[in-house]
Amino acid sequence: MIERILRARVFRDYRFWLIVLTVGVLAMKIAIIPYPWPELPPEECINLPLNEKCALIFDEAHYIPAARKLLRGEAANNEHPPLSKALMILGILIFGDNPYGWRTIITITGAISIYFLGRIGYEISRDEKLALISASLFAFDISSFNLSSIAMLDAPAMMFCLISTLLFLKKRWIWSGIVMGLALLSKMSSLFVLIALIVYKLFHDVYVCEDFFDGLRSWLKAAERTAIPAFIIMIIGLGIYDYIYGAYPTPFEHLDYMLNYHSSLTFKEGDVVYMPLSWTNPFKQFPRMPYYAITVEVDGKKYQPIAYYGMQTPLWWMTWLVAAFSAYFSYLDLKGGRYPSMESFILVWFAANYLIYFPIAHILHRWVYPFYFYMTVPVIALGLPRVLLGEKVSEIVLYLILAFQIAWFIVWFPVKPQWLIDLLLTLGITTV
Which of 91, 127, 362, 393 is most solvent-facing, going by the fewest CB within 10 Å? Predict the structure, then answer.
């Protein structure tokens, strides 16, 4: 009897289902790691340009050669912070210099992000259904799945950002800052998430506190306890890297180099740049971007057994709907004398991690890429159920969108087993 009660409680706990979802996605990620497999030895896949037989997907062509140079004691890829590459190196030391070594730890961080997004959804809404649907929408976002299944900087940065966010919402400021420091050491654009959290807290405290200056003091206390540890961890990490590899005399000079390097990456008139609006506009999308694709033709039918793509997904099409309704619900709450906690969280994150790229691209003429939207996907996944949960008809619409998201995920799954290829060809669905 006691065991039945315990089992029943476990199955009713949303965290149990978040773990099931996370483990399921991780299993899929691990299953596709060896595809493609390199035909050339590692020593022939270090210097650019690389042969296709090196089997590196997308920007792995930059990070895996850098990891190999770092293993030889040679500073490399100094324009990016070192932690994500250190995780790749750790994987190589454990599993060997092969796809399992490059990708295993990165894919683990990508899967763990699903769990923490669900936890954030519950923490900010106290709604278990919202938490599970949000995590599912994110888990079955094929572009996010692809990006977090290959050896790039983004998946570790996402994981640390989401852990930091959960700690921040729980008011564990110092620990949040420490983890955010690890995010900054993974990818510098994590700074946008830190800014979003601090601005969110500012709006909250100034509104909630009766006295403006009391609110300001409360905010400043949280901001200091979060931001200072984050930057300390980042500087220490860069310092350790610079000391080991002799890259820069001080971490501050290294940081200055990174900022100057990225500021110099500007495009000219005539260059093909996919501007931020094309990332979310379903009517004028950026073209589907093949990170790695193999096309096979049998009996006049073409299909792609391996095809990693960057593309819009049904969830990305909901972006402006989520933003508009979040703004509208915020207005209604403020009008009613309530602080729109979740809506303000969504809007601030949306502005800091997506809208920021509009002036960066259009005014500063900095190169921007659609996969930058990866860091915004979590709040669209949180916002959609927030908009649609509550009424029977709108919930049916939400479940249909989730079903469409899952179907899209299956059709564009990057490494298709033969039964899936046969099924899609039978249905007349081709991804070529």
Answer: 393
What is the distance between the alpha carbons of residues 250 and 54, in angstroms, rounded to a whole number?
35
Site of tokens 């009660």: 5
Q: What is the pLDDT of residues 89-129, one digit of tens each?
A: 999 999 999 999 999 999 999 999 999 999 999 999 999 99
Cβ 71 vs Cβ 245: under 8 Å: no
Q: Which two tokens stand for residue 139?
A: 């888990």
How far from 193 is each of 18, 114, 225, CA to CA, in Å? Answer: 23, 17, 16
DSSP 351: I
Residue 6 has a pLDDT of: 47
pLDDT of residue 12: 78
pTM of the predicted model, to two decimals? 0.95
3-state secondary structure of 294: strand
Cβ-contact 241, 66 below 8 angstroms? no
Nearest alpha carbon to residue 32 among 11, 1, 9, 57: 57
Structure tokens at 238: 């860069």
Residue 126 CA, chain-centre distance (Å), reads 23
Query: In this structure, what is the dihedral angle of CA atoms 16, 19, 20, 21, given to the nearest 10 degrees?
Result: 120
Position 48 scores a pLDDT of 81
Task: Quote the pLDDT of residue 3.
Answer: 57
- The distance of Cα 426 from the centroid of its chain, to the nearest Å, equals 34
Spans in the chain with pLDDT lower than 50: 6
Interatomic CA distance for residues 10 and 58, integer angstroms: 40
Q: How far apart are CA 210 and CA 232, in angstroms?
A: 33
> Is the bond leading into 81 cis (omega within 30 degrees of zero)?
no
